[in-house]
Amino acid sequence: MSSSWPTDYLEPYDAAIARLTGDFDTLDAMLADNPGELAAARRLRALSGERETSIRQVLETYERGDTADAVSVIREGRGKALMDQIRVLVRAMRGEEERLLAGQTAKVRIQARLVTAALALSTLVILILGIVAFRDGRRRLAEALSAHTALEQAHRDLTAETASRAAAESQVRQMQKMEAVGQLTGGIAHDFNNMLAVVIGSLDMARRRMPDDPARAEACIDTAMDGAQRAAQLTGRLLAFSRQQSLAPRVLDANKLVGGMSELLRRSVGEHLKVETVLAGGLWNTFADPGQLENAIVNLCVNARDAMPDGGKLTLETGNTHLDDVYASQHDEVTAGQYVMVSVSDTGAGMPAEVVERAFDPFYTTKGVGRGTGLGLSQVHGFVKQSGGHVKIYSEPGVGTTVKLYLPRSKAAEQAGPASQAFAETPRAVGEEIVLVVEDEERVRHLSVDALRDLGYTVVQASDASQALAVLEMQPRVDLLFTDIIMPDMNGRKLADEALKRRPDLKVLYTTGYTRNAIVHNGILDADVAFLPKPFTFEQLALKVRQVLDGAGANRTG
Prior knowledge:
- The chain is α/β, with parallel strands linked by helices and 558 residues long.
- Among the domains are: 250-410, Heat Shock Protein 90, CATH 3.30.565; 434-549, Rossmann fold (3-Layer(aba) Sandwich).
- Helix content is 58%, strand content 15%.
- The chain is built from 14 helices and 14 strands.
- The chain has helices at residues 11-30, 35-63, 67-76, 78-209, 214-241, 254-269, 290-306, 325-330, 353-358, 376-386, 442-454, 465-474, 492-502, 538-549, and strands spanning 250-252, 273-278, 285-288, 312-323, 337-346, 390-396, 400-410, 434-438, 458-462, 480-484, 507-512, 520-521, 524-525, 531-533.
- The strands form three sheets. Strands 1, 2, 3, 4, 5, 6 and 7 form a seven-stranded mixed beta sheet that branches. Strands 9-8-10-11-14 form a five-stranded parallel beta sheet, sandwiched between helices. A two-stranded antiparallel ribbon has the order 12-13.
- Strand 12 (520-521) and strand 13 (524-525) form a beta hairpin.
- Helix 5 crosses helix 10 (376-386) and helix 6 (254-269) runs parallel beside helix 7.
- Residues 553-558 have low confidence and may be disordered.
């Protein structure tokens, strides 16, 4: 007997059976970390498979029409037994999972409590740290305030110490200045006393010998003149050291000046020294007083000679150089720029550092008694500084010394020196030339008047500027105004200005023993000014007056 089975009725069953395999796979994956439960799941899969097989057998038997056999299989109870086993196993697995869930829940609760406790502990720690940080901040603030107070006190102490040190240094500098002034005045007094002893002693002897022995009296006068000239030279050196000598600078070529001195220097230093001159090609011009530059070079060569008593080599060298900002910052009174360098080098004994440091001090000398005044290098230093230059000594004991003079570069063309007049004998007055002498110092005025009259000039005189102007009003003709510069009522410069307004063709010759005056500015003579520094000799007066009257001088005042 066959039976018609509704297949669409079994579709939900077939769909459930199809999903069952995937569900068991998912269950195995979920229970992979629990071996017991995983074994139970596999047992459940097996029982499920047996139950599915049993049902398939019943359905197939029923499809074949063996209804009785199908009912017989159902009545055997195998399917029910399998379902009972499945239910038991599922209940066991569920119980185990509930137990595990309870354990996990307990663990989670414990962990939650632990986390809560940790959070509470963290909050407490944070609170404690906050308190500690607050207290540390207060401590640090107190320390900072204390440090600030200490720093302010240290600053006050440092300021007071700086002021005290500055005062002490100022006092030391003042003491050093006083020591230098004392050394200077002592040296001046010593040298002038020696020279005055020669002058006074010689003149006294001349006065005593004049009636009986004029020849010997004349020799004494010559000695007195020599002492007086040495005193004048000493004054000139002191003025050079103090940068107050009257300079007459012009644009010059140092190569020509040094080259022209070579023969003179060879004679001055002696035959036991080898003199070498190294002149730079393309040497720049400089602006300096040629006479004073020659004196400076001679002074340096004499010092070099004295440093080589057993012979050696003396080298004069010129060159172009640039003193940069770095060098200028390391040396006082040096302005960065281009300079003409003139150096004198020797192969002598050299100088230790402490001697180099004091080499330019006046009256400081390492030479023996009677071999030096101690003013040579100070004169060089004063001249170079007054000329806007720089001087530097390089020396090493046992090797030698080099002294370098740096004079500012001049971009102007070289100037010819003032025309010099050669006189076979002392020049005298020509015709009826009239000289007006203005001098407030009576004895000096009388000496000048007597000297000019001996030279054949007609001389009128005045003791001050007002008298001089009055003489010009009364005297119909005056050829030369010979005036002192420093006078009480009106200086010589203003007198000359007034005189030239009235006598435009008047020649003017100035004289003074003081350099800071109306015709010398910063130690430099005004251009085209005729000047005769005091003290002067009879010959110097005769030559200068003749030069001015003949037109070699000038009558400009401004």
